[in-house]
């Protein structure tokens, strides 16, 4: 893919320190991050519960005690299966670089930057080396959250130590995605990009099929074999996720959000919202409002 505009546009961290950590507590099993990809590497640790984590065309059931390493440019999606707690460390691989060109840079960092070398997808924290990695991951979280003097040195050192452990255990992988598999990934990126750009308008099955130059019937089979749901189901879930984001802004009315996210029938929008989020849009707004008020209450 040459069009960088098709990638996620969020900045994780800043120019001087391109790293950010996200921690998520999902008590209602409705966590959902739609398919996307980015230049950054992402390390997702499942602390509690279970998540379905889709990496390119493979779905993994993420369980407590597992670490998922999402390589640069990997198409991925995360869906809550149970109530869960997980953390995501997202960083530019450039943060690993050294100004001096040495063995570390030539043997490991440069191949990662050029996508010639990949991290393994899953680490079980119950193995000996997994526990070593978990120690560094915990240190990284603590240093990032506490922000004591030198925290950025410590977090960078933890990333490099994780990389060193993987290298020592010979777990780094040459990037040899089969041509057929890569073709599927590129097709999925085209489809998702089309949905991202057009979700607020009418989207038909033929529109999506044209993105891939497949006929509608074969396209449906292709899409469901990878995503696990029909194209229309995926579009509806994507729209509801966008609607939930809009509803978190108190000034947005439910009727407006319905139309802004591509639904042209309010009853159908409400039905789908409850199906994917477990509550009505009005109830969702009330929950968000109550949480906002409680966060702003002065401490007793």
Topology, element by element:
Blueprint: E1 19-26, E2 32-36, E3 41-48, E4 50-55, E5 58-63, E6 66-70, E7 76-80, E8 84-91, H1 103-113, E9 117-118, E10 122-124, H2 128-146, H3 151-168, E11 173-174, H4 179-198, H5 205-212, H6 216-227, H7 231-247, H8 254-260, H9 266-277, H10 281-296
Antiparallel strand pairs: 1-8, 2-7, 3-6, 3-8, 4-5, 4-7, 6-10, 9-11
Structure description:
The protein has two domains: 4-174, Jelly Rolls, CATH 2.60.120; 179-291, Homeodomain-like (Arc Repressor Mutant, subunit A, Orthogonal Bundle), CATH 1.10.10.60. 47% of the residues lie in helices and 19% in strands. It contains ten helices and eleven strands. The chain has helices at 103-113, 128-146, 151-168, 179-198, 205-212, 216-227, 231-247, 254-260, 266-277, 281-296, and strands at residues 19-26, 32-36, 41-48, 50-55, 58-63, 66-70, 76-80, 84-91, 117-118, 122-124, 173-174. A hairpin with a 2-residue loop joins β4 (50-55) and β5 (58-63). α4 runs antiparallel to α5 and α7 (231-247) packs across α9 (266-277). The N and C termini lie far apart (54 Å). The model is unreliable at 1-7 and 295-300 (pLDDT under 50).
């Amino acid at each position: 893919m040459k069009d960088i505009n098709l990638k996620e546009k969020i900045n994780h961290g800043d120019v001087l320190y391109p790293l950010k950590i996200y921690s998520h507590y999902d008590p209602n099993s409705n966590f959902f991050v739609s398919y996307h990809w980015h230049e950054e590497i992402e390390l997702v640790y499942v602390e509690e519960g279970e998540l379905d984590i889709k990496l390119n065309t493979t779905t993994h059931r993420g369980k407590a005690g597992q670490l998922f390493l999402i390589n640069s440019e990997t198409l991925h999606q995360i869906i809550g299966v149970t109530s869960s707690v997980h953390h995501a460390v997202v960083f530019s691989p450039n943060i690993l670089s050294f100004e001096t060109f040495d063995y570390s840079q030539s043997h490991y960092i440069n191949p990662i930057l050029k996508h010639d070398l990949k991290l393994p997808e899953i680490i079980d924290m119950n193995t000996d080396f997994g526990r070593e990695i978990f120690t560094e991951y915990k240190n990284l979280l603590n240093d990032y959250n506490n922000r004591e003097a030198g925290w950025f040195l410590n977090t960078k050192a933890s990333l490099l130590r994780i990389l060193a452990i993987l290298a020592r255990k010979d777990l780094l992988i040459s990037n040899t995605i089969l041509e057929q598999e890569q073709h599927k990934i590129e097709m999925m990126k085209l489809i998702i990009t089309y949905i991202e750009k057009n979700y607020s308008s009418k989207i038909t099955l033929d529109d999506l099929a044209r993105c891939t130059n497949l006929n509608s019937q074969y396209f449906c089979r292709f899409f469901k074999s990878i995503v696990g749901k029909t194209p229309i189901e995926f579009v509806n879930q994507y729209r509801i996720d966008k609607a939930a984001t809009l509803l978190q802004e108190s000034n947005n009315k439910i009727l407006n959000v319905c139309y802004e996210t591509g639904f042209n029938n309010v009853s159908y929008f409400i039905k789908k919202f409850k199906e994917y989020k477990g509550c009505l849009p009005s109830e969702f707004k009330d929950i968000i409002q109550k949480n906002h008020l409680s966060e702003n209450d002065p401490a007793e």
